[in-house]
TrEMBL record:
Catalytic activity: a ubiquinone + NADH + 5 H(+)(in) = a ubiquinol + NAD(+) + 4 H(+)(out)
Family indicated by similarity: Belongs to the complex I subunit 3 family.
Membrane topology: Multi-pass membrane protein
Molecular-function annotations in GO: NADH dehydrogenase (ubiquinone) activity
Organism field: Telchinia polis
Protein's name in the database: NADH-ubiquinone oxidoreductase chain 3
Amino acid sequence: MTMMTTLIMIFIIISNIFMLISMLISKKSFLDREKCSPFECGFDPKSIARIPFSLHFFLIAVIFLIFDVEIALIFPIITTFKMVNFFSWFKISFFFIAILLLGLYHEWNQNMLNWST
């Protein structure tokens, strides 16, 4: 065997030993059902499926996702500033940001940004 294969085998053995030790030492409790649950929104997935769900919580999550995706779409606009014609870049950027601001105004006007209503 070469020196490199020996080192790789030693690293694999050491990492497996560390994983085994961490599994033995860890304080994982099997009694806590919420931590083992695949859902993170606070309801019990093993209970009745017809419980009422907060529609406002869902709408806040959708608003967050929409604005998160829009931020990801703004970054390429910034990076193409020096590559394209300024007038067309300004028109497209202004149109996109105007749509964002109109959507934000609509959400604010409908009181969807207030959590306690």
